[in-house]
Design goal:
The chain has nine helices and ten strands. It has 333 residues and is of the alpha+beta class. Strands 1-2-3-4 form a four-stranded antiparallel sheet.
Length: 333
């Protein structure tokens, strides 16, 4: 999720865990702890593919963060020795903030290696877009109330708890919406004799009402959209070539293997100015994809990995208008 959401979630969890015991310091340290896992973006890992695929790995591991928790609590007690009697609360606060951070990231499509190094498979439940105001706003309202309402009253603490309940309820809604979209998608594909394919459903930007459906087989990928308000149950898919023959000569190349693993096979290859490029099909939409990587050059026996271009998933307001038009006025088929 975006940094503001993670900061808000950390502050809200901090207040809920220890706000009554240590006051507004729970909000502060909750926000700090909610930011710590994402600091791995400042660690250079050698090349663009490594930076991409090792993000949300060790820094988002429930095991690593459990080992880090005592150090953070030690630092807190050094700065706030008057709260030493609430040591156990501080432990609960720090680790709960860490855990909720990485679990929320797992609800996005990017992938989070929450069990690293025991299991390095990224968790990608893909029920919520990386920025979703309906999830974040209840958290922000709750922590603002906890900040401004006098500690002599419980109104701020209660408002914060309500914000957490509402945001969690919205997350549960996205799970239900995804199950519904998955059912519609697989039923449609079965009717089109495309049952033996890989399917990914993910919400479009800033909402959980319009969903993008990505399908890949050995030669092509298919893209379709489904609105929760569309009761026809019909879907139309556009088909595009994967061009995997471009990367077959590079099958032993480390970055190619890494991208194939990290994308869970939801990738396509293309030739751009004699450069062989792999695109992560999960993040973005045709033709606007966020992550593209140069993995080799046509005819070059010494492939290398570097970012070719990083494009925004939404280029302009026309794309936003298209998304909301599809939500409110879904087109059958």
């Amino acid at each position: 999720m975006d940094s503001i959401t993670q900061l808000a979630l950390g502050a809200a969890v901090g207040e809920a865990t220890a706000g009554r015991q240590v006051g507004r310091r729970a909000l502060l340290w909750g926000a700090i702890a909610g930011t710590i896992p994402d600091l791995d973006v400042f660690i250079p890992l050698g090349d663009a593919v490594s930076d991409f695929t090792y993000h949300r790995s060790f820094s988002h591991s429930l095991f690593v963060l459990a080992a880090l928790t005592p150090f953070i609590v030690w630092l807190i007690l050094k700065l706030h020795p008057d709260t030493a009697e609430h040591r156990k609360r501080w432990y609960a606060l720090v680790y709960l903030v860490f855990a909720t951070h990485v679990l929320l990231d797992s609800f996005t499509v990017y992938g989070t290696q929450i069990f690293w190094p025991v299991l390095t498979t990224p968790m990608t439940w893909s029920t919520i877009f990386i920025i979703d105001p309906l999830y974040t706003l209840p958290l922000l309202i709750g922590i603002i109330a906890a900040l401004v309402v006098s500690r002599r009253y419980s109104g701020g603490h209660t408002a914060n708890s309500i914000g957490l309940i509402l945001s969690t309820g919205y997350l549960v809604w996205t799970l239900g919406a995804k199950l519904h979209v998955e059912y519609i998608a697989r039923s449609t594909l079965a009717n089109q004799n495309l049952a033996d394919v890989s399917v990914l459903t993910t919400p479009t930007p800033f909402n959980s009402l319009l969903w993008r459906i990505l399908v890949v087989d050995d030669t092509h990928y298919y893209e379709g959209y489904y609105s929760i308000f569309d009761h026809s149950g019909s879907l139309r898919f556009d088909r595009y070539p994967r061009s995997l023959e471009l990367v077959r000569p590079l099958h032993d190349h480390g970055p190619v293997q890494r991208l194939q693993w990290f994308t869970k096979d939801f990738y396509a290859a293309a030739l751009m100015n004699h450069d062989i490029v792999i695109t992560d099909l999960r993040m973005g939409a045709e033709p606007d994809y966020i992550f593209r990587f140069k993995v080799g050059q046509l005819g070059n026996p010494h492939p290398h990995a570097t970012t070719v271009e990083q494009l925004p998933g939404i280029r302009n307001y026309e794309r936003l208008h298209w998304i909301w038009a599809r939500i409110l006025e879904p087109q059958p088929g």
